[in-house]
From TrEMBL:
This is C1q domain-containing protein. Residues 1-20 form the signal peptide. GO terms for biological process: arachidonate secretion; phospholipid metabolic process. It is found in: Secreted. GO terms for cellular component: extracellular region. InterPro entries: C1q_dom (IPR001073), Cerebellin_Synaptic_Org (IPR050822), PLipase_A2_dom_sf (IPR036444), Tumour_necrosis_fac-like_dom (IPR008983). The keyword Cell wall biogenesis/degradation does not apply.
Amino acid sequence: MKVSMRPLFVILIIIDLCSGAHERCYQSHDILANGCSVPILKKFLYKKTFTPACLRHDICYHCVIWCMVTFMYCEGIHTTEMTFLKTKIIQMEKSMSIQDDRIRYLEKNEVLQDQEIKNLKEEIYRLRPDMKSVKRSMNSMMKILMKNRRRLVRDYPPNLRSDSRRHKSIIQRDVGIEESKTNLMRQASQIIAFYAYLNNDVKSPGIHQTLVFDNVITNEGKWYNKFSGTFSAPINGLYVFSCSIIMDGPGQYASFEIVKNADIIGTFFVDPQYDEGYKYSSLTLVTDLHQTDTVFVRIGSSYAVVGNVLSKPYARSSFTGWKLN
């Protein structure tokens, strides 16, 4: 069986022509390609970026005969390459825009800082004469004090100098005692009082839940904390506390406790379950507090709570206290 070598020979000739043509095309690219076309009097940005793609496009057009490709093939390759370059340029322009914004921000801050520095320099220049005057006054006072000290040391007999030191310590001790008495009297005479009520109803409170009377009307000395609902004693003394609670009608009841630190110092009960309307209960007591002792109102543990603690514009649940002078 004879095999014809003619088709294989033709294919080899075509491949040889294509490869030779490809080399000839790229060796003569200076003649075949003229770069990117730009309209007259138009400035083409990024021309150097697109020029290699334009050259390859021109060479492809001139070599289609030798490499057996179509003009559409050249156009497709060229479009893909130009799209890729365009995407890269858009990304670069966005980055440049962000950098420009940052540069403008830094320049603006630099102007503001320069103005602040200028203002500070002007202030220093304005205060410089006053500083010199103060320094001169201090130097004069120091000279006067040193002169008086030398005179006192010289005039005091040796046996009286130790007595003078003892006398000075006694005077300082007496002054300290008087200052302590004055501070105690000032603390004892200061007004300590507060009054606050609930802004909103407390829905279904739990046992030992602290009632936070958050609307403060009076708070002399600022010793009541409207965020925790606690009063902290600033000084030792006798204090009066009073609490009034309102609940709704039938089927509702709860007990309440006034607590000092962790000790219950008073309890009362609100029980409107057999009444048709609202029911009030209140408790007023006097107690001895030491500095930093805290007092607050909480739900009692005598009964399970049934209902809500109410606070309406016409009837407020409130907590008040003051120090007896």
